[in-house]
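Q: Start with the shorter request: fold the first protein.
A: Done. Sequence, then structure:
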Amino acid sequence: MAARAMDFRATKRQYSVREDATVEITKALAALQPLYGKDNVEIITTDGRRVRGTVRSMKTTQALTTPSVKMETASGQIVKIPFPTIAEIKDHNLSS
């Protein structure tokens, strides 16, 4: 069975850059919430970096900070990924 993927790449819209970023952060948060604590999740960033592992932490409510997600890789490394840099989220878990 193929992995489910959600694409967050920027598209042409009639919103300002600031509003567009808010929409993308909201989409990323909605996609990541059900995956919290699950392993075998892959995040691809806008610069092409791929991080695969377990979703460990999502920070979205602190003032003056960029919302981000922390992923724990198979080697135990913790990687912090800001929401605006997320291009795609893949859930490699088999769904029943």
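Q: Next, the second protein, separately.
A: Sequence, then structure:
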Amino acid sequence: MIAARNVPAEGAGADDGALGAHPMVTTHTVIQARFIGIQQNWKVDRVESGLARRSSASRIDYRRKPDSMSDMTMRDMIRIDRPNNNERRILGVTSIALVAMAAACGSDKPTGPTTDFSDPERAEFVTSDIQNFWKAYDDGGAAGGTAPFQTDYLDRASPGLVDFVRSRNVTAASLAAMVRTYPRYFADIRASTLRLANDGTVQGRMREGYRKMKGMYSAAVFPPVTFLIGRFSTGGTTSSSGMLVGLEFYSIGPSTPLEELAQFQRDNVRPLDSLPVIVAHEHTHILQARAGGIFSRSKKNLLEQTMLEGSADFIGYLVTGSNINARLADYAIPREAPLWAEFKAAMHGSDISRWLYNQGSATEDRPGDLGYFIGYRIAEAFYARTADKRLALRAIIDMSNADQFLTQSGYAP
């Protein structure tokens, strides 16, 4: 996950190559269904928070490893709660509609049901939530109204946004409060966020990263990436809907006013062109989860969590040539030996508070998220001393024993 998820609640809370556009950029909310050739029967129920909770007859989990990486069938990729007869009829009828829609679309439109998650050319970028957010903004959200954010944005959420809302406690009220708190910032980033939806350049760079990853790691799969606007709580995370990216962090321009923002936010906002490295980081987490290994453990010690995050940064660098946490190096490299000694003494414990997801407590004397730096350096050392780079990359992603990996890396500053 991207470190920018540890902002405080209500707009500031805890937690998480070559250019070339590709024609298939998804801009509507039908997403999971497309991967099984059906439109799912979404059922909307009102919940106490006032959000629309959606459930489906079928649910894909891209993070689960199939029985055979070379035989990526739908049986491997989906867990099914069997629909009843009425649902079957709905699903069947809508499947035909989706196929018809695909036939009617030109090359720059969504191409209908996708069943090959192993093909980077068919990976999908979901941008419908961006347009919906700005519709809500125009319909009264900019003035602090909560109803537009509910009806125009949350009630029309893509499956990825639904997951995000559940896991990050996003409400219409929190969105309205955020926009009221940072009015100049949001007015400024609007054009940049909409550029992602309408300009294929950035998507082209992300797809180029996917191609590079496929060339290095043949087991790679490419679930959807949902771009949404949250409440300044999460820069990036994953769910069974794929990768979820909080675009409010990644849309600044050279003249974007930052005076309204808190220090944490100023440290983490970036331009739209940084998205390929964000996606590469989160994509690594998808691959780690599918591989099993330490990602699948319910209880992880500091070393294990550090290796998951730092190696995602390192692989992001291999794919894109950039590191989203490069700023840490200026502080950490001159202090690497004492930092390592401190980390090593704590690495088998469960206390991560000085190393991960702690930008909220960062000071001038010690930045947050130094664990990302430590994990990056260990993965980098392992990769450098392994002759077969494809085997090295696989070992990083599939890591099942963090202590053994550390020993094999030879890392000892």
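Q: Describe the second briefly.
A: Residues 298-409 form one domain. Confidence is low (pLDDT under 50) at residues 4-60, 66-115.
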